[in-house]
Design a protein that fits this description.
single chain
């Protein structure tokens, strides 16, 4: 990434500072506003080292690198398949990735589907580590240990079962109610699963 700067000879008599910027890079990735739970993966904040024009970012992809029995390795989520990137224009130092309230191979009701995911932003020269536990989603995993277990996962699920809660990590279908027909069934089908 070397740059060559050529100045006219007539300008060399005046001292001046020249700043060459290598451009923005990804400085950190924060999942779910730094909440521990990975029962639902609904927000990814991509922090940048310098402001960029969001309109020039280009393609952003999330690719499943590890799956549970119901998923497929290689599933790709983009802005055409459930990924929402904001802002879409203007200078920004943070790109916020969220997900549509749809049910597809890669997005389940406003969350990435179960699996380990790899984030790629080619225009910034960024690809996260394959198998990164930070980009892991396993519905029911409240403590991000990679397993849906009795304690603390089932205990935490039981404490909110039958309630109406907005944005609950145990609301699989994102309808605001933790119920038996959908949410408990989704939890039960993953009980004992490790990712």
């Amino acid at each position: 990434n070397n740059s060559v700067l050529t100045l006219p000879a007539s300008n060399l008599a005046v001292n001046s500072d020249i700043v060459v910027s290598a451009g923005a890079a990804v400085s950190s990735v924060v999942v779910n506003s730094a909440a521990v739970q990975r029962s639902r993966l609904t927000t990814i904040a991509v922090n940048l080292s310098a402001p960029v024009d969001a309109a020039t970012i280009g393609a952003i992809t999330l690719t499943r690198t590890q799956a549970t029995g119901s998923g497929t390795v290689g599933t790709v989520v983009t802005t055409g398949s459930g990924l929402i990137v904001s802002p879409v224009s203007g200078l920004t130092s943070v790109l916020t990735l969220t997900f549509e309230n749809i049910n597809t191979a890669g997005v389940e009701f406003g969350s990435l589907a179960d699996g380990r995911w790899q984030l790629a932003i080619p225009s910034l020269g960024f690809t996260s580590t394959a198998g990164d536990t930070n980009l892991r989603r396993l519905f029911g995993d409240i403590n991000n240990d990679g397993t849906v277990s009795g304690n603390p996962d089932f205990a935490a699920f039981g404490s909110v079962f039958g309630t109406t809660l907005i944005n609950s990590p145990f609301d699989f279908n994102n309808d605001g109610t933790i119920d038996g027909s959908t949410d408990f069934a989704a939890f039960g089908s993953r009980f004992g699963v490790t990712l």
